[in-house]
Amino acid sequence: MKRFRFGRLLPVLLPALLATALFAAPAAPAAPAAPAVTEVKPEPVYAEIARRLTASLGENHLSGERFDDRLSQAAWTNFINLIDFDHTLLTQEDLDAVAGMKTAIDDMMRAGDLTFGYRMMDLVRRRIIERYDFIDKVLQEPEPFDFTKDETYLWKREDAPHPADAEAQRALWRAALKNEYLAIVLNRELDAEEAAKKPAQEPSEEAASDASAETETREIYVEEENPDEPVADVLRRRYRQLRDVYAEMDAETVLQRYLSAVATAYDPHTDYMSPMSFEEFAMDMNLTLYGIGATLRYDDGYIRVMEVMPGGPAGRDTRDIRLRAGDRIVGVAQEGGEMEDVVHKPLQRTIRKIRGPKGTKVILKVIPFSDKTGSRTKIVDLVRDEIRLEDQAVTGHIETVKAADGTERRIGYARVPAFYAGTAADAGRGGEKPASVTRDLLAILQDFNAKHVDGLVLDLRGNGGGSLLEALAMNGLFVSGPVVQVKDARSVQVLPCQAPVVFRKPMVVLTNRLSASASEIVAGALQDYGRAIVIGDSKTHGKGTVQTVQGFGDSKTYGAYRVTTACFYRITGATTQVRGVVPDLVIPSAFDAMDRLGEDKLPGALPYSEIEPAFYARTDETVAGFIPRLKAASDARLAKDEQYGKTARMIDYIRKANAEKTVPLRMDLRRERMRAERALEEWEEKELSPVRRLKDEGPTAENDPVLRESLSVLSDFIDLRGGPDQPVRTDGDVGSRLFNIFGNGASR
What we know:
Layout: H1 3-6, H2 10-21, H3 46-60, H4 69-83, H5 92-97, H6 105-110, H7 115-139, E1 152-154, H8 166-197, H9 205-214, E2 220-222, H10 231-247, H11 251-263, E3 271-273, H12 275-284, E4 294-299, E5 302-308, H13 313-316, E6 328-334, E7 340-341, H14 347-354, E8 361-367, E9 377-383, H15 389-392, E10 395-402, E11 408-415, H16 424-427, H17 437-450, E12 455-459, H18 468-476, E13 482-488, E14 492-496, E15 507-511, H19 518-528, E16 533-536, E17 545-551, H20 555-558, E18 560-569, E19 585-586, H21 623-640, H22 642-659, E20 662-664, H23 667-688, H24 690-697, H25 705-720, H26 734-742
Parallel strand pairs: 11-12, 12-15, 15-16, 16-19
Antiparallel strand pairs: 1-20, 2-9, 3-18, 4-5, 5-6, 6-7, 6-8, 8-9, 10-11, 13-14, 13-18, 17-18
Helix pairs in contact: 4-11, 7-8, 7-10, 8-23, 18-19, 21-25
């Protein structure tokens, strides 16, 4: 559908076309007729919001692209996937009926017409009621399922085709219900088996006292709050909750979802915030409310934990079963209150329930990241608090490693969990200086210099970023010259180091898939100069964009939007977007195998691109030539490292699990698979648990095989360079080099 065919008549004709083509009464399905859905209609002011948002995105997004037919198609796809994430509620017949809308959303938005969004949401709400009625009827059958048949269920459905028609849709609903029914039956069976294996012991008075003291803070796995509840009733309750959530949907919630789909057509970090969402966003900035210290994102109806932040309540938790990146939050309860189901509920409303006064407890019902099908849950209780700076602060110590000739070599190790920075107002006590990650690292480096270390391992694993100014300053501790280029819609700015060089020994930088933004700037610059060898996962997170929050009128009336306004580029001219920083030596962790972790896994992410390189000079041209020899020696050591071997087996299992998109519906096969999954889960907690050990003890060569290997790689690199006394060049500023050559300076 091209704009020139319809011209100004399009906004007038489309509502009528929608009413006749899509929303005419369909043929009566075999299932009982669904109850009527009260139509949700947009408020009059929403038309102006649509017009203003469309214009603002085109003017302010980094791309400068006007909202056109291409972006309209992306918005159409975003919205369909948002309201039907597992492709079970809309049929292909439904989609064919609205295929013409793919290139019409842009015209309708400029005309202030939100008909498509509201009508499609009403259709989804009706389908959810139909699905509940269908499931209720199936569960009334004496023996609804035969678990001896060789059948499978495709649970990973985000890329699956929509059912062709109503008949295929009901077959899909029945298969999904059979999968859930079987999972509950077998989880109860396996829970009973595990309970029977545990010897009954009468605790001593002291042990009983300790257990009582920890009852309120320990985590437990659960299947359902009442394990004796009939399976059919459990499933009815789940689907009834889903039905009720959609039945209560109001006009602003529909607006939020539809315009979010429109905004994310530009990129996944550009988004719309309705008046209520923006109010809650602003409240998040209010220090009177505290949270759990985790980054959350709405993902396929669930609230997914994207990152557990160092120094927050979740990050300080060292219990065996705790909140982790990748977990999905499905329920929230306040201390002493009932668990509230939050599946399919708006992200901001759920975040508001999670946040609260400092010192109060929130209880979360969570599907662990290791459970792909969502058949098990765990209960996590956390006391709300602020993120403590002392838990984010840089730490360091000296490790000893044997060189090739048998002599001992002293290597400094510094861990940087976040690029934190503060203001004078933040300090607020007796002239104390504001927080600075660079200043804290400087003190550690000065101590290393005084103790004559032979090299440094800079650990940026799990560091999600923070202050750009601190990233610039931190680079300056190791090398001089430009650090990063920032490109917006109008210009490219080259940003230099902002601190004097203080450390002049060989370096290794550790990264993983959670290293993002400022971490990628630091690691990328040190790699580009040849100043450090980067070791870690196959690449870093890959977030190379900058967002700002902007308004287009009174936020209480129009809301606001977050828009991508700039992109980071390395001094080589390559962006960190999507590709991230690829290490010189790949030593993967379990994060490298996790599904949906990284910018490249986000739909519609801005692509990799390049600009002209900055004016800089490499400080060491020998690194690339040494990499093959370093890798060969590293591979040989890791092959004999039993501790890393366990990690490698876990990585292999995670990758295989992610590749398996189906689960068996034959009881004996499914039982065998679930037993294996439980055994692996128990083994992982006992044998690996690197995150827990690192929190308890801090990373050391003894408990962290990747750190241990990086120390050996650095020692080998020092040998290849000619020994620890061989000088390291740190001047990457071409202008400074020229001055030193033709002036009186001495180049290093």
